[in-house]
UniProtKB/TrEMBL annotation:
One Pfam family in the UniProt entry: Peptidase_S28
Similarity comment: family membership: Belongs to the peptidase S28 family.
Signal peptide: 1-16
The name this protein goes by in its record: Serine protease K12H4.7
Keywords assigned: Glycoprotein, Hydrolase, Protease, Signal
Xref: InterPro entries: AB_hydrolase_fold (IPR029058), Peptidase_S28 (IPR008758)
A GO term for molecular function: dipeptidyl-peptidase activity
Highest rank taxon of the organism: Eukaryota
Gene3D superfamilies: alpha/beta hydrolase
Gene Ontology terms: biological process: proteolysis
Amino acid sequence: MILFIPILCAISSTWAEEMILDPPLRVDLSSPGDVQFLTPSNVLTEWINMPIDHFDPQNTDTYRMRFMFNDQFFGGDGSPLYILVGGEWDIVEGWLRAGNMYLTAQENKGYMFYTEHRYYGESLPYQNFTTENLRFLNVDQALADLAYFIREMKSHPRFAESKVILFGGSYAANMVIWFKQRYPHLVEGVVGSSGPILAKVDFTGYLEVVHRAFQSECGDQMIATIRQGIIDTVASMATEEGRRNLERAYRLCRPLNYGNEFELGYFSGFISWTFSGSVQQARPGTLRSICNNFDSYGSTPMEKVGGYIAATRGIVNCTNISYESYVNRYRYTSDNNRAWYYQTCTEYGYYQTAPRSGTIFVSINTVQEHTRCLQHIFDV
């Protein structure tokens, strides 16, 4: 039986503020862990004017796409170009100072670039993310951006004979693989890591992987504790005393709206995305440390789950869970999360629903709950 529950989104938290979760399967690609030990940066930032619509010759509007570069290892005219393709995040210079592409460029005397995806970070065609303004946010336009960028770089004499290799992870892994299929004449090869290539609305496999990761690192006994904690959480919703225990275990400033299925679904995301976030952002030893400390988070299984969430998310005193605040945040905010919600709604799905093998929140968090959430955000 899989222990994890489906999610609506990921988390940020502070004392007594609303807990605002992020869209499903969205990551912020922070710098590699070892970048702090490196010498001063050789990375510079530039901008390129990019067509907003590559497929309408009558539309001459442009936006400024940000990119970073590092020529630290460049071997001169004709040496290879390595391009790290940005996904649904702000690009940061650390990935041009450490990581797999950095080491590859070092070995092969390559020039390194890092491109930012339209509508993310500082590469914004519009400042206001209305549904109308988001119409140019899709992978076809993003791949065309990348093709335009490569052609522009190759127009420089020192890069004219250079071979191009693309790197990408997560959604950007999809992009580099699709780019090789669509624009094979522009790249020599691509390296895609952990790409969810198959667009899938009912995406149960994600939480299955999260379950297996914790089981592998922590063993069956801890899995049993977490499962019991989640079972006790559901059971606690049925009585007044149980609800008080639940609110104390999860450091909630105010009671949940137990009659609102959307708020309960939102609360399930509060739990499940803490676990999946620990796996997705893990570095060597991270999960093992969680395993070793899990019993210290509380006395009962439910308290241990709640204590782990508080420790992971930095909840010192208490936090609020409000589905209404969540919807209002993404209905009116122009940021990476609203953009990614738009992409999952129009192109990919990726709704991390519970596996069908006995998962307990499946009756609350279904594909329909995810799609209705999107209807609330985009007023459709």
